[in-house]
Amino acid sequence: MTLRTHAGPAHPARGARAGLRTFLGAVLVTAAVVAGCSPPSGDEAADAPASPSAATPPAPAPLRGGAGAASPSPATSVPVRPARDVPEPAPPAPTRVVVADLGIDLPVEPAGVDPDGRMALPGSGDVAAWYRFGPAPASPAGATVVAAHVDDPDGVGPFARLAEAAEGTSVEVVDATGTSFTYTVTDVRSIAKPEVPLDELFDRDGERRLVLVTCGGRWDPDRRSYSDNVVVTATPEQ
Prior knowledge:
Elements: H1 12-32, H2 42-47, E1 94-99, E2 104-111, E3 128-131, E4 143-147, E5 151-152, E6 155-156, E7 170-175, E8 180-192, H3 198-201, E9 209-220, E10 225-236
Parallel strand pairs: 2-3, 4-9
Antiparallel strand pairs: 1-2, 1-7, 3-4, 5-6, 7-8, 8-10, 9-10
């Protein structure tokens, strides 16, 4: 299937850009929020009742059969060291994505979240973005997400050809160390944006895979956005 570009007002890329950012934004905002608890202040701690686990344990009963009670054992001093979590080093970022059968060969830049809480994308359709808060090709699990605009003010971008991908198409991703990862396309879908399964696309714990995303479907001049997202899923070759 092919993407349809609009035949209406100029600058469809601005709508495409906004559409893809809207699609990617919701899950990124969710992933960025972490709830936590703060310890009570000094006054609150002083007024709080002691928990049962913090109470002094009862004294042991005297031993029977001897001449009186046994002497209590002296308290044992146990050395304590503060625990320190040492995070694993981050996997190398992808730097290039190639789909030779479709003539796609793009540099890839790490992307975070923009001020509106959405995934930031390069302004040009000739540069793809990797969601840097998710898995990378060398990660042991989860989806490596790479996205790009379907077009920009200069014309249709290379990722527009993703809609033509077929199952079995080979995809190569090169990371910052120069290591090449080869994937095989297993699924190609054009999904209406309200129905895109964000949790599935941005999964961190499932099987290792590559997810390529761009806009597609019908151009809506009123919304200045495409109706769909083209989502290509590929699994790593063994």
